Amino acid sequence: MTFLILGLLVFLGAHSVRIVADDWRTRQIARLGEGAWKGVYTAVSLVGFGLIVWGYGLARLEPVPLWTPWVGGRHLASLLTLVAFILLAAAYVPGNAIKARLGHPMVLAVKVWALAHLLANHTLADLLLFGGFLVWGVLDFRSARRRPAPAASVPTSGLRTALVLLIGLLAWAGFAMWAHAAWIGVRPFGAAVPAVG
Fold first, then answer.
1. What membrane topology term does the record carry (predicted)?
2. How far is CA 111 from CA 39, 131, 146, 159, in A?
3. How many other C-beta atoms can be found within 10 angstroms of the C-beta atom of residue 67?
4. Of 28, 44, 101, 117, which has the maximum CB count within 10 A?
């Protein structure tokens, strides 16, 4: 559990600088240059992410159950994860109505993803991982809403919004039907994948 906690502190800490020290961040970007700042930020984030993956994998070997999973939790989690994929797609397709309306769809996607996984899981590692990301998402969304919104550079269109829905649906289907089992060892619509070796 130590590596998971350390990874969360490093990863979420790096992603919280703008929440707790936006003025300091601005000064560091001015001092180092934007490229160097992004390089340091990326390196720290990758270290944190690696520790999270490693720590969560270790914690899954000796799970500490905290509650009895809700029977409908997995079904609701699958539906919420579809919403999260659509929100994530909305963050990257310019000129869609979802991003224009919500402002920060990527952060909302993280919040929905984390909540979905809290509903479907029940161990201490799950609570730390998904609960940590949910708390971060709430704080980051509040912080982002206080900052001035950038001017919209691309007008919204129904075609781009439809493209967001299609990309989100296809990405969700691919992840739910194949990647989740291949990468994480859990089939959202079936039993866990047996360990190899």
1. Multi-pass membrane protein
2. 26, 9, 18, 26
3. 9
4. 117
- Per the CB < 8 A criterion, the answer to whether 67 and 122 are in contact is yes
Q: Let me know whether 106 and 161 are in one domain.
A: yes
Per the domain annotation, does 197 fall within a domain?
no
Last residue of a domain, which of 19, 43, 62?
Answer: 62
C-alpha to C-alpha distance for 175 and 182, rounded to whole angstroms: 9
Q: Phi first, then psi: give them for residue 88, nearest 5 degrees.
A: -65, -40
Number of domains comprising the chain? 2
pLDDT confidence tier of residue 149, bands split at 50, 70 and 90: low
Q: What are phi and psi of 188, to 5 degrees?
A: -55, -30
- CA atoms of 120 and 105, how far apart (whole Å): 22
